[in-house]
Amino acid sequence: MSQHGATELEHQEHHVVGPKVYLAVFFALMICTGLTTWVAFIDLGVLNPVIALAIACFKACLVVLFFMHIHYSSKLLKLTVASGLFIFLVLVTMTLSDYISRAWGLW
Amino acid sequence: MDSPAIATGNGEVLAEAHAHPAHLRHHFETVEQQRDAASFGMWLFLLTEVMFFGGMFMAYLVYRNWYHPAFVAGCNTLNIWLGTINTVVLICSSLTMAMAVYSAEMRRKKSLITYLILTIVLGIAFLGIKSVEYAEKFELHHVPGASFSIEQFVHPTNPKAVALAPDMAEKTQVYFSLYFAMTGMHALHMIIGITILLILVVRAFGGAYTDGHMTTIENFGLYWHFVDIIWIFLFPLLYLISRYR
Amino acid sequence: MSSTNTIVQLPDQSTAQLPRKHYLNQEHTLKSWLLTGDHKRIAMLYLFSITFFFFIGGAFASLIRLQLLTPGSDLLAPDTYNKVFSMHGIVMIFLFLVPSVPATLGNFLIPIMIGAKDLAFPKINLLSWYLFIAGGLFILAAMILGGVDTGWTFTTPLSTHYLNTHVVTAALGIFIAGFASILTGLNFIVTIHRMRAPGMTWFRLPLFVWGHYAASILMVLGTPVLAITLVLVALERTIGIGVFDPTKGGDPLLFQHLFWFYSHPAVYIMILPGMAVISEVISTFSRKRVFGYTAVAFSSVAIAIFGFFVWAHHMFIMGISNYSALVFSLLTMLVAVPSAIKIFNWAATLYKGSITFETPMLYAFGFLGLFTIGGLTGVFLGSMGMDVHLTETYFIVAHFHFVMVGGMLMAYLAGLHFWWPKMTGRMYPESISKLAAVVTFIGFIFTFFPQFVLGYLGMPRRYASYPPEFQVLNVLSTAGASILAVGYLLPMLYMPWSLKYGKIAGNNPWQATGLEWQITSPPLTENFVETPIVDHEAYDYEWLANQTEHEVKTVG
Measured between CB atoms, does A56 come within 8 Å of chain B? Predict the structure, then answer.
């Protein structure tokens, strides 16, 4: 008998994330912030925005996974986060399909 | 409540009056169900926020590629150190918020209130630095619509800056429009967050959230971290374009 | 499920009684309505409000049709006409179609259908109604202050630079009403995930719930993009930032991308709940399980997902790249697949069913025919070459009215009649409502079929006057609109009448299988005396026939 609507998650222990994890994440974020500002002053050509975005994504992942507890959350919440990312990427890629292929475009 | 009993899945009957924790709303069966529903609802709300900011990120992506020189010139008028300090301030506030959630979980009223107040202070510090930056933009005539002049981009006084053709210099307005729209919308979220934090502090003084029922504080934490994440992306996108020039 | 041995006789209603206590008479004060957390009462609040807005939008529609009776601008000045069709679109889309089925029937039924006492967040549900009313008031204010003439699409730079009407007020109204829609969708998703009764698995959910789930995903993910777009338009008008302004380097097409990223999924927000109603009605009145339940369930979700990939088919003539238009045109064809799955499965459900022709079923048949025409003409418009010829003509007006009015409004009326006995405890008068259904159908065909022809002949939309050779078809359309108006006014008269004089319905007047039909009509405030335990599939008519001893006990 399946009754996962109400009970599936009751068995999932509510995970308390402690100060140790928070501090570790905090220092990682600080280091990344320093790193991204430092890298910005070095001429790496096209790699500059790539690195800046990669660091930003890494930082965002740390916040989502640990500060926002997604690392310890149910599959449903993980899926929710993923779907938000997916729809944003749909907006970006489908819009870009227009912008990158315009004959008169500035791309 | 009219119904005298709730039949659970395996047929067990609980006498409701006794098995009903104080914070459990009548339409939920268990506290866990209520807590899960609340955090799921909060995440769905954050999803809408992702798409809300997503529209502006999309616009940024298009225009940055179209008007790259204008974006570089616009970006180089921003104060990178104020931006970095603000990033640090906001990450600190995220830490204090996370610790506030932890304190609520541990049922420590004093440390909960301390961390909440710290979060408010850091939030206000962020807005203070932001308003200094905004004021500077008005002085430099970099506010599209209100006071804008392309003079500094066509004939820069700074010898290191690259002069733009008047046509491209006009496009810095797009950069500053996006700058104000994105940071303004972010600041608006901060203001809303600080307002809610004030309410939370008042209620925490009254003993709320440290009695085992901490869904509100947990969900507000999610919101605050989300606002932090938006800034984590705004900072490199707005402040760090081709800084090496 | 076999269709033999199932009931074709509806129960005797002469002995039916109203329950002594139910959600309507639990409390009587105005405050108990305005501060209620009960999803059923909020559904009723929504019902009254959207009916009000429907008649405002309908009044504008009448003005449009009257104006188009003659080729010249005889009734309204051209700029007044622009305001009239803009208000018609804004009111009908944002204040009627988007909330129509979800906020009334969905609000009322989703918790009951899944065996819950309420939606997950009753206060947020009430908040969403207040936001809806606030948004509606802003839009009404824009109307009274002098109107908006951008059309419902707020096209830039027309809306940001060239029009001196109340664009910001209207945009703000839509922004606020949009949050009402987001909160409704959010509430539904959480409720469907977290509040299902024991045994109510995903594949035992009625298709009504599946349809609303899919629509809710669209509301939650699409609406915020519209919100930020309108905020940027408002900022551009008020303080002069330049995100879409070409003189500052902005791209007006970007506005179109962002606007249609919401507004194309929005048509699925409107139609999916309508399809959800049709699944219930067709199954009930053919006394058969919906053919291909799983396919119909997944087709709802598929429509929701594909809906995010096709928006630029509104922009084929606006100057997007040809390659991109090709991609969007192909993807548009994909949406036809799940829509066709639904239509074919409903047809297969009818096959060898014990069909009866009560009013909801008549409306549902209207839906099947009109939606199919509307959907197929959508395929014409999705093909790039045809679209260049047909877009911005009356063909497109006819197309979306077939889908929205012929589809959604028919489904809404089907649902309203179908669940009226559950919502109020009383039957609507059967014979006059059958007449209303038929009149609506005939009026609809006469109103909008000529518009296909007009569009094909090249009559552009959104003009106050037209060449005299188009007059015959326009007169036909206006005549049809007056028949249609009668069709909509009739329920407006007999539905309130039935509140007092209608026959008492009893718990399950249609012998339908949903959980909502196993409780009292009208339901108790907490819906169920005991949380139901579900042990059968949806649309199990044999279970219904054998379940007298399992019948959920009622207080009354």
Answer: yes
Q: Which of C117, C190, C526 sits opposite B37 (nearest CB)?
A: C190
**Whole-angstrom distance, CA of residue B117 vs CA of residue C10:** 65
Calpha distance A18→A25 (Å, rounded): 11
pLDDT digits over C474-526, tens only? 999 999 999 999 999 999 999 999 999 999 998 999 989 999 999 998 999 99
- Position B7 scores a pLDDT of 36
Q: Which residues is B142 bridged to in the sheet?
A: B148
User: For A61-88, what is each residue's pLDDT tens digit?
Assistant: 999 999 999 999 999 999 999 999 999 9
Chain B contact for C186 (CB, 8 A cutoff): yes
Lowest mean pLDDT among A69-78, B143-152, B234-243: B143-152
* Distance in Å, alpha carbon of C126 to nearest chain A alpha carbon: 24
Residue-level length of chain C:
556
Inter-CA distances, C225 with B226, C169, C263, Å: 17, 18, 9
Give pLDDT, residue A105: 66
H helices of B106-159, where?
Answer: 109-139, 151-154
User: Which burial class, exposed, middle or buried, applies to C300 when counting CB atoms under 10 A from its CB (0-12, 13-18, 19+)?
Assistant: buried
Question: Which chain A residue has the Cα nearest residue C202?
Answer: A5
In a domain, B141, yes or no: yes
Instruction: Find the residue in B nearest to C220 (Cα).
Output: B48
CATH architecture of the domain formed by C30-550: Up-down Bundle (1.20)
Rounded to whole angstroms, the Cα distance separating C226 from C171 reads 10
Is B11 among the domain residues? no
Q: Which residue of C has its CA nearest to A96?
A: C324
From the list C251, C258, C524, which residue is nearest B55 (CB)?
C258
pTM: 0.93
Residues C271 and C293: their CA atoms lie apart, in Å, by 19
* pLDDT at residue C8, as a whole number: 56
The span from the CA of C235 to the CA of C230, in Å, is: 8
Using the beta-carbon criterion (under 8 Å), do A103 and C322 form an inter-chain contact?
Answer: yes
pLDDT at C342 over 90: yes
Residues of B in contact with A26 (CB under 8 A): 91-92, 94-95
Question: CB-CB: which of C21, C120, C224 is closest to B51?
Answer: C224
Other Cβ atoms closer than 10 A to C270: 28
pLDDT for the residue B11: 35
Domain residue extents for chain C: 30-550
Tell whether the model's pLDDT for residue C6 goes beyond 60: no
Does A87 contact chain C (CB < 8 Å)?
Answer: yes
- Compare CB distances from A76 to B40, B54, B88 and report the shortest one's residue: B40
Using the Cβ of A106 and the Cβ atoms of chain C, whether some distance falls under 8 Å is answered with no
Q: Is residue B226 part of a domain?
A: yes
Contact present, B41 and C211 (Cβ < 8 Å) = no
**pLDDT tens digits, C178-206:** 999 999 999 999 999 999 999 999 999 99
In a domain, B126, yes or no: yes
Q: Report how far Cα C47 is from the mean position of its chain's Cα atoms.
A: 12
The residues near C168 (Cβ < 8 Å, ≥ 6 apart) are C234, C237, C238
